[in-house]
Amino acid sequence: MNRFCKNKNPQKPGEGFQSAGHSLRIYVGCVLACRYHVAESFQGSTTESIFENKFEHAIASAIVQHPLFTVGRINEASKKQYWVRLDHIDFNNHITWQTVSEGEDHRKAFDAALNWQVNERYTDLETRPQWRATILKSAKGDFVDVVFAWDHTVGDGKSGRFFHDSLLACLNQKPDNDTITLDDRSFKLPVTEFTPPLHHLLKLPVSPSFIFSTFSQDLFPQSKSDKPPHTANWAPIKMEPFESRLKSTTLLNDVLKPVLDACRKKETTLTALLHSLISVSMATRIAEDEARAFECGTPICLRQFQKPGMSKVDLKKTAINGVVYWPYKFEPGLVATIRQQVSDAQPNQELNKRIEDTVWSVAKSIRKGLSAKLKLGAKNDTLGLAKFITDWKSYLLDHAKTRTHSWEVSNLGVMQGDVAGNTGTEDHWRIEDATFTQSASVCGPALTFSVISVKGGGITLSCSWQTGVVDDGLAEGVSKDIGMWLNGLGRNGCINFTE
Prior knowledge:
Elements: E1 4-10, H1 13-23, E2 29-37, H2 48-63, E3 71-74, E4 82-86, E5 88-90, E6 95-99, H3 106-119, E7 131-137, E8 143-151, H4 157-171, E9 186-188, H5 198-201, H6 208-219, E10 244-251, H7 253-265, H8 270-285, E11 294-301, E12 323-330, H9 332-345, H10 352-376, H11 392-399, E13 407-415, E14 430-438, E15 447-454, E16 459-466, H12 472-492
């Protein structure tokens, strides 16, 4: 049994929130799967054991660069939980290898791995770090898919990106730079400092007025009849069955580039456009008496607000929970307009431009709102209030009665996919493709859209939802709409809402 040292470190407020969500089975975690082109020297004649040993050495070297991927946690049932230092990691408990033969459907195997990772809770928290990986080897041996998953308590979406960046660098290192020794797939962990809490790495100021206005909502809760129209009553909160479903949509690079060009021309961003398009799909697929209005959310990364010299820990390279949530409301009048415009355009395609104009106008408004939030930095955000909450489980149970957000768009941006200084030879490892996804959230957004791309490639949009809460046809239909509209924009320069 893996023993942990006496060294322990209390979880901080933001970590306590995520930890409570996992304990209550409200949320499982994140997954970032990357397809690695295998260096030529490891293709073909390389034996399976040599290949896997090379890869696992690289994973070990990458993991130790991120302390929160090397620790366990104790006291899960109590109000106060702790990170604990572990003395070793056994890959038999974390990494599963699977070779997909030529007769098998690689995509089917890949989707199955994603689905398992978003639904399987993390166990043995006291003795194991909260991450795992399924590695799918192609029949030809020219690429591997690394499906890396982790408990959100450990880190946000960017944390997964940092791991893959580290793994890519380690794969391309010369063998003599390897300081890890694997013994029966297990290795000793070096003693490293715990990752400091976020509020030690950047300031999270909150004003008295913000504190009062936020907590007054808890002190004077609204009655059921007074709930705002944006509340996602159409997606009731159910603790069981807790099962996530997934649907992925991919845009090729030749489609993505003109879409991004159109966003720049319209003074908006892809994230804002996605929100706007999702609102059209949701408005036309959900009846007005079920949803007169919507509220959506966007996670915003705080790493950019770290001031130089505040800490030796660089947030832009550190696995940690460093995001805040920015909401946007689609008011009843706007949603009614969208529904009417779509209805009017069905028999008269010439009216399609009215919907397009509305979509771009809303996207521009969302971009302005996001820009305003970024100008505020980390000031007056609910994350700064987390220190006032001492019992996260009770807090989450109290707030798990109403669903606020109908959907979320979480955009991890663009991965470089290659190491700096690469000369362009084939005898090196590189990332060719990526898929980012998350488990469904019992009381969070009903639909979670996760976005990522690799430089020079296309973009993948993954949608997740909870079985029995969101109808499969609705979630798959919204995903289909978004893919069709973006493909139309990229290929034809316009969005056709009448198809």
